[in-house]
Structure prediction request, 460 residues.
Amino acid sequence: MTTTEREPFRPEADAGMTLIEVVVALLVFAIIAAGIVAGMTTIQRMTSDDRSRVVAANLAAEQTDLARAIGDPFQLEGATTTQSFPTPDGTRVYTIHRTVSWVSSAGADISCGSGTNLFFMRVHVEVTWDGELPTTAPVQTDTIIAPAGRITDPTTGTIAVYVVGSNGLPMPGVSVTIVPTSGGSSLATQPAPTNQDGCSYETKVAPGTYSVTLSKSGYIDVNQDQTPSQSVVVTVGTTQSVSFQYDKAATFPVVYASNYGSKAFALPTDLQTTFINSTSSFYTSSTAASSVLLHPFASGYSAVAGALGASTGTITCASDDPAAWSAATVKGTKLGAGQRGATVAAAPGGTANDLDVPMGVVVITPSVTGYLKAVQMGPGPGVAQEPNCQTKATYHFDAVLKAGVPVAVALPFGTWTLFSGTATAQTIPITSGVTVPTNAAPASAEIQGAQITLDPRPAG
Prediction:
């Protein structure tokens, strides 16, 4: 019997590739293809960016030519405009930003409010476009515009007015009035309102002293003046600059005696209120209004009942200010430091949250009917750490006193003497029927005969 052995299987040389070999080949191809596509895309973007740069250069040159065509540097101002052009990739938007600055005799760029003689105007144009590559610099051009004649005339002078808003940026559209106050001569026409760079100019001004006044409906300056003025002395051959910070007024609702809650009380008819900002400047209102218009300082305001010395910026009656009262122990009761109401701010033209004005409240149960007067006395007897009061106030109330009927009246903090009387004279000291619900200090310290101390410090 013959036995036949089967020969082992051997794959043919052209039997094909394995699955792993196919996957690896595809991966290599994908990497090479991605690189080619990325390279082509980059080349296409760079080509498109180069075309855009050419257009931007033409726009910058056009802006430079326009500035030169104007010729008068006093008519030039900064501006930002856009232009759109179709491209194979769609519409492309170009942003053209033009800035101007004066050049001093030393060659430095200066503003119109620098107080330095103005010689030439430098015009800088910068053009960018959407889709601009991160590595591509904007197109920029510069030119110098010289005035037709001398700005600093040898027989007259120039007044330059510079106005910025509360954010420090130029404020356009503000009316400027220049009036001679000593010497000089009246202007034939008033200067134009401030331009986009916050500047207004008047050339060929006769030597003398002038008052420069701003006006714009609803606007207010840092001194809370709606039509601020500054004096400037013009001399021959020079530029005199005047700078203002002027912005749309913000509305601040005022809540008096906020620490007394919602209970009824009377305010003096001639109460003064001090509004304090972070620059330590003060502004006093002579009436207790439900809201006030103030310059929109970003840091905001706090408020104090009474006049701290607003005209000079020096505190002359510290006891009005609750923040001036330091922690102390009064008649065995520990009192913490006094605090003002919260600081609140508002944007230009906006409305702030309530501006709280803490005050001392006295409840009087009078034995007579009539009018009331309060006279500030300075530090009271037996009250530890009461601040000094150099300039003392006198406040008046209407006919709030009715015999046997309790009435609450609010006053600035400090020590007071209360007087009752007729409409023309209040001379009778009130020595009884008085309580102070806003005080944490013991009654034996807050009331000493006819003197009543209103203490802002909380217990503890």
Summary: Helices lie at 19-70, 443-446. The chain is about 10% helix and 35% strand.
